[in-house]
């Protein structure tokens, strides 16, 4: 089977390419490199000893899809390409809606013309808004609080409508919790531009000495130690979840939605403690005011993915921190 991976040189995409190639799939990557480097794909080839096809192209470019679909017989698309910074999405909503939503509509139109009607989409736990209870199940009410989250929910709805109108389409929506860590080779990992927003990339930049301390955004939440609790999942576990989803597509499942998380919640202080253990030094931090828009607790009920995809997360928090530290210390400046 040949899979088109949009956004395939990014953080989750590159890890998924490794798992696809190791599972015997042929891979075609399309990425405009706006938030990644082609070097990640060289590393994917180095890890797997296998080749893949790469197109530097934008998902809003119809001709690029025409070229790819005429040069390859694609069986399914895994759609990672998108902009993902919450704060930036509030400042640049037009760019986010155009890139993520319009880009996906253009892609689906070109997929339809080429007769490619299988898609796995990168959604996010952000579509649950502020959940009333945890663990979060797939049938919980959906809402969003920022343009980034809105693009995820809109794309979920668009893909659902496409399936409703044409039952030949198989649509699998994967709602990720908080992906962290890196491939255990230390060759690929997350390489954020500028100062990271997410906790783990920030912690690892403090540990390597590029930032002075971690701001812990609030210690007055209703949680075990007052700091925010999240469901951190190893990026390799997440990547394997995509392989299971692609396998599911072969059953013509229609439209499905799955949480990909571990079901365990860790607080910010627990993460800092675990990361300090992994890197062998204390990571300094200061308690700071709450970050606007943050929720207190978020973790998944991932039992549906276990039941229907035969998938469950294998790696614990220790390995997530160790693998992230290996990537960070071997590549202090990312792919540069
Ligand atoms: P990433 O930025 O590393 O990867 C996204 C890739 O898409 C990048 O390589 C970027 O260059 C590419 N891209 C962006 N716009 C494009 C366009 N118009 N045309 C072609 N390529 C384009 O991010 P990631 O963390 O790997 O996330 C992958 C997907 O998963 C995204 O859709 C993101 O919203 C979603 N997601 C990520 C997280 C997370 O915490 N990392 C959580 C939930 C969902
Ligand atoms: C963020 C996004 C969310 C997205 C998710 C995964 C926001 C408001 N939300 O969520 O839409 O789906 O990433 O990409 O940006 N923290 C600190 N100090 C830091 C950074 C984070 O204390 O420097 C805390 C946060 O308050 C939170 C936890 O660490 O409690 C995790 O934060 P983060 O990694 O940004 O992920 P989310 O808040 O889950």
Describe this structure in words.
It is a single chain. This protein is 40% helix and 18% strand. The strands form four sheets. The protein has a seven-stranded parallel sheet with strand order 3-2-1-4-5-6-11, sandwiched between helices. The protein has a three-stranded mixed sheet with strand order 12-9-14. Helix 5 packs parallel to helix 6 (147-165), helix 7 (199-207) runs parallel beside helix 9 and helix 9 (268-279) packs across helix 11 (317-330). The protein has 336 residues and is α/β, with parallel strands linked by helices. The two termini are 33 Å apart. Strand 1 (2-6), helix 1 and strand 2 (26-31) form a beta-alpha-beta unit. Bound molecules: nicotinamide-adenine-dinucleotide and uridine-diphosphate-N-acetylglucosamine. Residues 86, 124, 126, 149, 178, 197-199, 202, 214-217, 228, 230, 268, 291, 293-294 line the site of uridine-diphosphate-N-acetylglucosamine (UD1).
How would you sum up the global shape? Answer: globular
SSE run = EHEHEHEHHEHEEHEEEHEEHEEHH
> Main β-sheet: number of strands, strand sense, barrel status?
7 strands, parallel
Average pLDDT, rounded to a whole number, is 98
The fraction of residues assigned to DSSP E strands is 15-25%
How do the helices and strands line up, and which of them pair or pack?
Layout (H helix, E strand, L loop, with lengths): L1 E5 L4 H12 L3 E6 L7 H10 L4 E4 L5 H10 L4 E4 L6 H6 L1 H22 L3 E7 L22 H19 L4 E7 L1 E3 L18 H9 L6 E4 L11 E2 L1 E3 H15 L5 E6 L5 E2 H12 L5 E4 L8 E2 L4 H7 L7 H14 L6
Helix pairs in contact: 1-2, 1-8, 3-5, 5-6, 7-9, 9-11
Bound molecules: nicotinamide-adenine-dinucleotide (NAD) and uridine-diphosphate-N-acetylglucosamine.
